[in-house]
Design a protein that fits this description.
The complex is a heterodimer.
Chain A lengths: L1 E6 L6 H11 L3 E6 L10 E4 L20 H10 L3 E5 L1 H8 L6 E3 L7 E9 L15 E8 L3 E3 L2 H10 L2 E6 L18 E5 L5 E4 L17 H10 L2
Chain B lengths: L13 H6 L4 H11 L5 H10 L2 H4 L4 H4 L9 E2 L7 E6 L2 E9 L1 H6 L1 H18 L3 E11 L7 H19 L3 E8 L8 E11 L14 E6 L9 H5 L20 H16 L3 E6 L4 H13 L2 E5 L12 H6 L5 E6 L4 H10 L3 E9 L3 E6 L2 E7 L35 H10 L7 H4 L10 E3 L6 E4 L6 E7 L2 H6 L1 H18 L3 E10 L6 H21 L3 E7 L3 E2 L2 E2 L3 E10 L16 E6 L9 H6 L11 H16 L5 E4 L4 H10 L7 E4 L5 H5 L5 E6 L4 H8 L3 E9 L3 E4 L3 E4 H20 L9 H7 L1
Parallel strand pairs in B: 4-5, 9-12, 17-18, 24-27
Antiparallel strand pairs in B: 1-2, 2-3, 3-6, 4-6, 7-10, 7-11, 8-10, 9-11, 12-13, 14-15, 15-16, 16-21, 17-21, 19-20, 22-25, 22-26, 23-25, 24-26, 27-28
Helix pairs in contact in B: 7-8, 7-10, 8-10, 10-13, 17-18, 17-20, 18-20
């Protein structure tokens, strides 16, 4: 399958997604510059982590107006798979491709650590190689990852199974509670209603090699591959 | 045409020169060099370029002593940073620099632009920045300004480093009264390049265009180098805030990507960061190094606001700007790349054959100097030095208090601000981005893998001001030994040193003496380990109202692992492993953390045996490469007992340890060169003894499944409880003493007058 990674000015984990996909998982990946209008042939589009436009104004608020986002929206409307990681998740929320919003961490400071998340739904293109209740160790690194949505929307999300990943407490959180950023319902990742757009704050691309501490992120990429073959 | 001051500019005389930080003699030398009175613009330019910060006039003579060349060093003196071959055709480029005074005056922006500045130094070498570290020294936690400064500095490093996408992988933080009114912020950056990608900072080729790229030029940072960095502090220091630059990490990220893309074209002849003294230093240094002249057209410089005059344009220290010399005819190709990245880019001058440094503005010549007048012709001083009459400590004499039991002492040490976990700090830094971090903050040294190879790089920054205050020569040696040892503890071969030498006012003989002793100590240790000093930085005038900081040479070491998979961590990993101590000398309590907390009867101080230090380091590297050790941890602040506790804090699986033979306070809490704690499978003991011969290898005990730290007969603690103390201490002291809300700034002048 063909992966396309969008590079915005200020994208930081773009090279890391490309490395994980191309070098570790032997996938066909290309990068598109945000000013391009066309995605080209793509099976899955990845919006990577970083500080697009410096996260000035509000995370993802400017990037959603980049020329490429028109194509990303069209692609998503046509059922194409879109994965937003960290800043990519924020952009997807700002672009209304995903419900809810990401606000400042409850602690008001940036947090970088290994998080533990639990799989909540496996019947999606992003989690089909996992089991419900599987616990994944994935790094997080963000200042604005507190997922919020109105109560009725949260209830809908839960009912429809759109919450795919939820934070759980681990040994490294040192009593900080189960959610490292204060997310409502401890939400770490959500999908849209059609389950073809998925955003998550943890970084699966930084968890694909044992040398770097975890391989739990592979299953997310492998699920996507499996869903398209 | 003779250059002239512009209408309305002040009359240039010796009084004005003095107000610019120049001495009467220096002003005389300028008049002699020019054969006339300098213009106002020229005076400004001289004042920054001849400042201590830019000219190294007090240190230059002494820095020559350092071994700058050696195995694997490419490039070398005269470039922005040294480069070290690491195999597979790759070079590592690294350097550490101070941003002390700006960070004290405006902690967030001061620290942020410290990070940004060192990144651009590495970028200018043609390397992609891949990791940062920071060495931070704050005043005591009970000082009213400390909370504000800590919050600002950490926030600035996180805000800049995280947004620019370079991981902050290691560092050190110390709190002590010696830094109450002059904190230290030393920022390190490591970059990686293919050898043939290395760029030059030597301008050449008459007619080649000079390109300005990056941010616009504003009024920020004017006289940052001369008046802020090269003078001691006064109570009115906060009035200096306009001399601090403001950082924009987003633009820096674009600048990094654009420069790396532009370098790939081969159209860049020379490139340099516009750092201290901005356009002036970058242009004059490139011209002087290349033995050519340069002409600048100041009207072409992209400005942030209208109305800037030549003096301001030349002296601005606005951030995120680079100056480059392009091959003639290829400037358009380069300008296109920078515009793609939404950056300003303009041709602002050209290289001339005549060795002059000229600046034009609106058709008028505003400066016309010999090209080397600002650099090579800058004054060099051999300042007098003499040992202080009584040992300068900068530290409060430890108060002799009632000695607690060893068990209570261990708890107190684990909670001490200089020992306890730094997690609340480093969890605010992205140490993961770029996907190379094998061992992040919290270990003895950080370990990065080098993509596309089997290799790894290890890096660590250390300092030991307490020891340097007692004996600046031995203290500096011990600092080098510690940084080298930390890198060896992760299994890497130490390969290069960079240093940031922080001292008080060099015009005082006792400060100069500390500095010279520091250089001598650094030289002796570098030679003993046979490790080149590839780059460095000197920061003088770290004193306020006559109170200097303790002498603080900060040493960073980069090491190489041939097989990154063989890296060693500092935590115990396997039940029933033997716990060993390998040491070059018995520990002592003098100048230890225990000493600072509880006092100490003995004044016996340690010495450094460099030969034995080399044996220890070489033994570690060999043992690691043979796979004989499962963990290695250097004994530092808090002594052996604290080191053992830290080794039990394995986040994946908390383990315990059963130890016998550590009975006295000095054995439990003593420090000094050098002891390492290693754990190993029992069958490896004989082989390890052979490797470390003739050093002492003591069997201390074994790793246990039961999560208790038992050090017979005095200590028996639940490791989880110790971990809770260790992790909780710093958040607790910062939040309770400094308030958990973002701090408003206490009035500096009032504080100083109270002291």
């Amino acid at each position: 399958m063909k992966w396309v990674v969008v590079r915005f000015p200020g994208s930081l984990d773009d090279d890391d997604v490309v490395y994980a996909l191309r070098e570790v998982l032997a996938q066909d990946v290309s990068i598109v510059w945000h000013r391009t209008e066309s995605l080209g042939a793509a099976d899955c589009v990845v919006l990577p982590g970083g500080f697009s436009y410096g996260d000035y104004l509000r995370c993802g608020a400017i990037a959603r107006f980049s020329p490429i986002m028109k194509s990303v929206k069209r692609f998503a409307t046509e059922g194409g798979l879109v994965l937003g990681i960290c800043n990519g998740f924020q952009i997807l929320c700002e672009a209304h491709l995903l419900p809810g919003a990401l606000t400042r961490n409850e602690s008001l400071s940036f947090v970088c650590e290994m998080a533990t998340v639990r799989v909540e739904n496996r019947q999606t293109p992003f989690t089909n190689q996992l089991e419900i209740g599987d616990v994944l160790r994935l790094p997080i690194k963000h200042g604005e990852g507190r997922y919020v949505a109105p109560e009725h929307e949260l209830r809908q999300l839960e009912e429809r199974g759109q919450v795919l990943l939820r934070y759980v407490a681990n040994d490294e959180s040192f009593g900080a509670g189960s959610s490292p950023n204060g997310s409502m319902h401890a939400i770490a990742g959500v999908a849209n209603e059609r389950f073809n757009v998925f955003g998550l704050m943890p970084h699966p691309e930084h968890a694909v090699e044992a040398l770097l501490g975890s391989t739990d992120g592979r299953k997310i990429f492998e699920s996507i591959t499996a869903s398209r073959t | 045409m003779t250059p002239a001051s512009l209408p309305g500019e002040p009359k240039v005389d010796v009084g004005l020169a003095r107000a610019h930080g120049l001495t009467e003699e220096e002003y005389g030398a300028i008049e002699q060099l020019l054969g006339r009175t300098p213009t106002f613009t020229e005076l400004g330019v001289f004042s920054v370029m001849w400042s201590e910060h830019c000219s190294y006039k007090s240190s230059r003579n002494h820095l020559k002593q350092l071994p700058m060349t050696g195995q694997g060093v490419v490039g070398g003196p005269g470039e922005n940073a040294g480069a070290l071959e690491i195999g597979d055709g790759l070079v590592a480029v690294f350097k550490i620099e101070s941003h002390n005074h700006p960070s004290f005056v405006e902690p967030y922006q001061g620290a942020a632009t410290g990070v940004g500045g060192i990144l651009r130094d590495i970028l200018a070498m043609g390397a992609r920045p891949i990791a940062s570290m920071d060495s931070l020294k704050f005043g005591a936690l009970d000082h009213p300004r400390t909370g504000y400064l800590v919050g600002g500095v950490i926030g600035g490093i996180a805000g800049y480093g995280n947004c620019v996408g370079v991981p902050t992988v290691a560092g050190e933080v110390m709190f002590d009264h010696g830094y109450d009114s002059n904190i230290l912020v030393n920022a390190f950056c490591l970059g990686l390049a293919r050898r043939e990608q290395l760029q030059s900072s030597r301008a050449r080729g008459v007619g080649n265009p000079v390109l300005y790229v990056g941010s616009t030029t504003g009024r920020d940072g004017i006289h940052g180098a001369s008046l802020l960095a090269s003078a001691q502090f006064e109570p009115s220091a906060t009035a200096m805030r306009p001399t601090v630059q403001v950082g924009d990490p987003f633009t820096e990220k674009l600048l990094i990507e654009a420069c790396l893309e532009a370098m790939e074209t081969g159209a860049i002849i020379a490139i340099q960061d516009m750092g201290a003294a901005g356009l002036t230093s970058s242009s004059s240094e490139m011209a002087s190094r290349g033995g050519v002249g340069i002409e600048l057209w100041l009207d072409k410089v992209p400005l942030r606001e209208a109305g800037l005059v030549p003096y301001e344009i030349l002296l601005s220290e606005s951030q995120e700007r680079m100056l480059l010399v392009a091959a003639k005819g290829r400037e358009e190709e380069l300008l296109r790349i920078f515009r793609k990245w939404d950056l300003n880019a303009a041709v602002v001058g050209c290289i001339i054959g005549e060795q002059r440094w000229r600046a034009w503005w609106r058709g008028q010549l505003v400066a016309d100097l010999p090209a080397d007048g600002l650099t090579e012709k800058a004054p060099v001083y051999d300042r007098p030095s003499s040992p202080p009459k009584k040992a300068m400590t900068g530290f409060r004499t430890p108060v002799k208090r009632a000695r607690p039991s060893p068990q209570v002492a261990l708890r107190s040490l684990l909670a001490s601000p200089n020992v306890s976990s730094r997690r609340m700090i480093f969890r605010q830094y992205d140490w993961i981005v770029r996907g190379n971090t094998v061992v992040g903050p919290g270990g003895d040294a950080a370990v990065l893998r080098v993509k596309g190879t089997s290799r790894g790089l290890a890096l660590k920054v250390d300092s030991n001001p307490r020891a340097c205050a007692r004996d600046p020569y031995l203290g500096t040696q011990a600092t080098v030994c510690e940084a080298v040892r930390n890198v060896a503890c992760v299994g890497a071969r130490p390969a290069g040193i960079t240093n940031c030498l922080n001292y008080g006012n060099p015009e005082r003989p006792e400060i100069m003496w500390q500095f010279i002793k520091g250089i001598e100590g650094l030289r002796a240790a570098a030679l003993a380990f046979n490790i080149p000093v590839v780059s460095g930085n000197v920061s003088f005038y770290n004193e306020t109202e006559g109170r200097p900081i303790p002498p603080t040479p900060t040493i960073a070491v980069v090491g190489i692992l041939d097989d990154v998979r063989k890296h060693i961590r500092h935590q115990f990993a396997q039940i029933d492993d033997l716990i060993l101590a390998v040491r070059t000398a018995p520990p002592v309590l003098a100048a230890s953390e225990y000493d600072c907390l509880f006092g100490n009867d003995s004044d016996e101080f340690w010495t450094v045996n460099l030969g034995r230090e080399c044996q220890l380091v070489n033994g570690l590297i060999e043992a690691a490469s043979l796979g004989l050790i499962r963990s290695a941890h250097d004994v530092a602040e808090g002594g052996t007992a604290v080191t053992l506790a830290e080794a039990c804090f394995n986040s994946r699986q908390i383990l315990g340890a059963e130890i016998v033979g550590l009975k006295s306070e000095v054995e439990l809490f003593g420090e000094g060169p050098s002891t390492i704690i290693i754990s190993t499978a029992p069958q490896c003991l004989a082989e390890l003894r052979r490797i470390f011969e003739p050093l002492e290898v003591l069997v201390l005990g074994r790793v246990t499944k039961n999560p208790r730290l038992r050090i017979a007969p005095h200590i028996d603690e639940d490791v989880r409880e110790l971990l809770r103390i260790y992790e909780g201490a710093l958040p607790l002291s910062l939040n309770s003493r400094a308030g958990s809300k973002p701090q408003s700034e206490p009035q500096l002048s009032e504080e100083l007058s109270r002291q």
